[in-house]
Design brief:
Elements: H1 2-5, E1 9-14, H2 20-30, E2 34-39, H3 46-54, H4 60-74, E3 81-85, H5 92-101, E4 106-111, H6 119-124, E5 130-133, H7 136-141, E6 145-147, H8 154-159, E7 168-175, H9 180-193, E8 198-203, H10 207-216, E9 228-229, H11 235-243, E10 245-250, H12 261-268, E11 272-275, E12 291-293, H13 303-307, H14 315-320, H15 323-332
Parallel strand pairs: 1-2, 1-3, 3-4, 4-5, 5-6, 7-8, 7-10, 8-9, 10-11, 11-12
Length: 345
């Protein structure tokens, strides 16, 4: 299979996302591809990210200059693939120019956000040969959009073999957004009541953004400053905490249907999961002994679930959620089994 990749030239444009873009590049290069990677955003500072999310047009001049430079640097490369992940910053005009310069390239878009959270992706998606999404509802609604869940990286495969002492009953690591902090506070009350040991790492992108949000959103003011962390954990730090934990919590965004990266990582590490995402029951990775659902408004934590044994998933299903198979499906159109509608009794 890897013979197909050998020597293939790929222009990859992706938002920086906790280092996953680097893992994708490394894996493609290990297959024999030649990858030129560029961040989707002109910069990853607080102001640039905020303007892109508020209204991409506010950053149009800076963004167009940035993409003109990418186009200048890569115009002679003759790519086999142009691979865009997320697509929240690139314009139709710049995509048209890339298409004109690399007429033999297959253009692929992967969305790891629901379209409702990424309006520019909805504008540009028609310009790609293949469009994949992690959100099965979006795939059902939008024409020519293929459903493909996210992946776990190799570190979580190693984590699954860890023999570390599990001194944390329940772990949460994630960004504080939407109603997530409120849900975690409700869960925390349950954990204290049931005398369970827990560790929550509430990440927030920047102090400046937090104080700005406090000005416009009164509900933010009740967050304890001491409870927020402004430094991202490395993947080594995350897997170390995973190894010490019996159960991991994941809380999806409201109106989001797709399984988060955290959910897939928990599956890769073969850890138990507490989640608010009801759609997980429709996926082939679901097993009631390994995954329990809670109501985000009234979460009930079952102490028995925390301590009962883990059921090892079938190898075929486990491997399908690896980064290798994610790439094979996107670049080779392979699909070993369906990604959902597999019921476990």
């Amino acid at each position: 299979m890897n013979a197909y990749y050998k020597g293939k030239k790929i222009l990859m444009i992706s938002a920086s996302f906790f280092g996953y873009e680097k893992e994708i590049c490394k894996k493609l290069e290990s297959f024999g591809c030649i990858v030129d990677y560029f961040d989707e955003r002109p910069k990853n500072d607080f102001i640039t990210k905020s303007l892109i999310r508020l209204n991409r047009k506010l950053l149009a001049h800076k963004s167009n200059a940035y993409y003109r430079e990418i186009i200048r640097q890569t115009k002679e490369r003759q790519y086999d693939f142009i691979f865009v992940i997320k697509g929240e910053a690139i314009s139709k005009k710049n995509l048209e120019e890339l298409r004109r310069l690399h007429q033999n390239a297959r253009m692929i878009l992967y969305l790891w956000d629901a379209l409702s959270y990424s309006p520019n992706s909805n504008i540009i998606r028609h310009m790609f040969d293949d469009v994949y999404t992690f959100d099965k509802n979006d795939a059902a609604v939008y024409e020519k959009m293929q459903f493909r869940p996210l992946f776990f990286i190799d570190e979580y495969r190693v984590s699954a073999q860890s023999k570390a002492i599990q001194d944390i009953d329940v772990l949460f690591i994630g960004t504080v957004h939407t109603d997530r902090f409120k849900v975690l506070k409700r869960i925390e009350k349950q954990l204290v009541k049931k005398n369970l040991n827990y560790y929550f790492y509430h990440y927030y992108p920047s102090k400046k953004l937090f104080y700005l949000k406090c000005l416009v959103d009164r509900s933010m003011r009740k967050y304890g400053k001491a409870e927020l962390q402004y430094e991202k954990l490395s993947k080594e730090e995350i897997t170390h905490l995973f190894n010490r934990s019996k159960v991991i919590i994941d809380i999806e965004r409201p109106k989001q249907n797709g399984l988060t990266m955290r959910t897939i990582e928990v599956f890769g590490a073969q850890k138990k999961l507490i989640t608010t995402n009801e759609s997980i029951k429709e996926y082939d990775l679901y097993h009631p002994s390994n995954i329990t659902l809670i109501d985000r408004h009234n979460p009930i934590i079952d102490r028995t679930f925390i301590y009962q044994g883990y059921v090892t998933p079938p190898e075929q299903i486990y491997e399908k959620y690896s980064l290798d198979e994610w790439l094979h499906e996107i670049f080779l159109h392979t699909r070993k089994v369906n990604h959902h509608i597999v019921k476990v009794k």
